[in-house]
Design brief:
Length: 220
Amino acid sequence: MIKTMTTVAVALMTTVVALPALADAERPQVCLVMKSLSNEFFKDMSVGAEEYAAKRADFDLKMVGMQSETDFDAQVNAMDTCIVEQKDIIVLAPADSRAMVGPAKRAVDAGITVVNFDVPLDEEAKAQAGLKLAFVGPDNAAGAKMAGDKLAEVLGKGAKVVIIEGNPGADNAKQRKVGFDAAIAEHGLELLDRAPRIGKPKRPIPFSPPCSPPIPMFRA
C-alpha cells in the first residue's frame, strides 16, 4: 500500500507542488481519474490521494473510478465531466492506452493540465493526436523482465514455469507479459502454459493453475 500511495503522491506533486498558496475560492481543482475501484490497488490509491490532499490542504481533490476494468466508456465520461467542470488538473490512470488519448487531448485543448500515470498512453496514438504529456509510473515490461531474470538465476536454465496473467486486456498486463517472455527466451526457461486470472481469487491459487489440459510438474 505504501508503494501505491507514493506513486499517486508523486503524480499529484508533479502538478501541484509548484503552485502558490491561494484563497479557498482560487484553490486548484484536481481530478484523479482511476481504473476499477473494485481493484485493491486503486482502493489503496484513493486512500493515499485523499491523505496527501488533506496533508497539503491547498487544493481540492475529486476522485472518480470505474466499476470494472473494462468499462472504458465510464472512464471517457469521467474525463469529459472533469473537462465540463473546468478542473485545473486531471491526473489519469488510463484503462485503455489508446482510447484515452482522445479525452486527454480534449482536456489539454481546454487548457487543463493532464498528467498520465500508472500506464503510459500509447506513443503512436499520442503522436497522431499531437499530444505531449508527462508520465509518472513504472516500466512494466522492464519490471517483469527483472523478475524473470531473478527467477532464472534461482531456478537455472530449462526450469519449467507457467504464467498466471492478470486481465489479458489490460495494458500493464500486456507489458508485463512482454517483459517476462523476454526473460524466458533469454535464459532458456521452459514455458509450459499461461492462463489469465481476472480479479481477486476467492481462494488460494491451486498448485496446478487453471490451464487446460492439465500440465506436468513445474517449478514456478
